[in-house]
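REQUEST ID: PR-0412
SUBMITTED BY: lab tech R.K.
PRIORITY: routine
TASK: structure prediction, single protein chain
INPUT:
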Amino acid sequence: MNAGQRPDRVCILHLITRLIRGGAQFNTLYTAAHTAIPDRDVRTVVAAGPIHDPGGDLLAEAANLGVELAAVPHFVRRISLWHDALALLETYRLIKRLRPTIVHTHTSKAGFVGRVAARFARVPCVIHTPHGAIHQGYFKSPWRVRMYVRLERFVTRWCDAVVCLTNGEKRDWHDVDVVHSRTEIIPSGVDLATFAQPTRPGAAIRNEMGLEDDARIIGYVGRLVELKGIDYLVRAMPAIIASEPKAVLLILGDGEQRQALHNLATELGVQDCVVFAGARDDVPNLLAIMEVAVLPTICTEAMGRVLVEAAAAGKPVVATRLGGVEDVVVDNETGLIVAPEDAAALSAAIVRVLADPALAATMGAAARIRAERFSLDAMMQKLNALYTSFL
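STATUS: complete
OUTPUT:
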């Protein structure tokens, strides 16, 4: 216990690189907002760096959840000795000011800087959630992969527990010998009721999106970045339309690839069948009008939060076989899993779902049941128990 801190008071500091609209960021905010430890007065603070992302930020979400925020001005995603050294100093000073009992780091950059700073500041307990094995697919340079893995092996010893979202993510880390003696599997929690109960009629949403009443809607939800493999989904559209002429791809989200994806749709002659809706705050309402949700990622996923959101909405999914996807989606039961970077496989799976409404309904019902294990309550029960175990 830090000097001068009341025995019944606990401060938990969460560190994450950026509060952009992403699964790791939602997970961090929800964790901070819902932490509850018996007989303890808990203060949670989320510290992050500046936000520069066309996909938007979660500052309004943090305010709505009542999450206390702090700034680490030199947290940047890219590797920069200057910025990283300053971020380390800023994080160290923040820790000394807040005197947290627990520092919980999230994602790679904040995970490295945060664990080093916490070590120097002698924080009693340090927990790390990587939110994905980013050595798989994120770096194009082999030397960067090797450097990142070596750094991760080094700082893993400087934390008291590691939290992986799925067994698939844990396996990805073990494959490169990044192993911690206490690794907990705690999936990222989703507020299932929000996605199970849309707040607006489907007809109104279709009209707003300019979609015909009989459109067969295929949906993608997420950031528009290369690693999500959305170009393969766009490339699948000509074959899908050949089988299902009313098929429309509805893309929710924004990012650096938006213009390139728009150009690709035009090049393939499917621009009238691809709708870019941008970043939206009403994802549950838009999921409700989809017949199938697709996650075509070409990089490893720790879990794939949108897969749970679609399942909670009772939708079948088509996803690529990477990371923890198979921990969420049961192939041929709650959805279909295909190989990554394969537009033909994507189109065949999507057509199979669209062509068989009974199959889609059965998968959607099974998905809704399976989603229960990824609820917000399930996550917080495990995380609160983990925090308590260190007190």
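NOTES: The longest helix spans residues 81-98.
REVIEWED BY: pending
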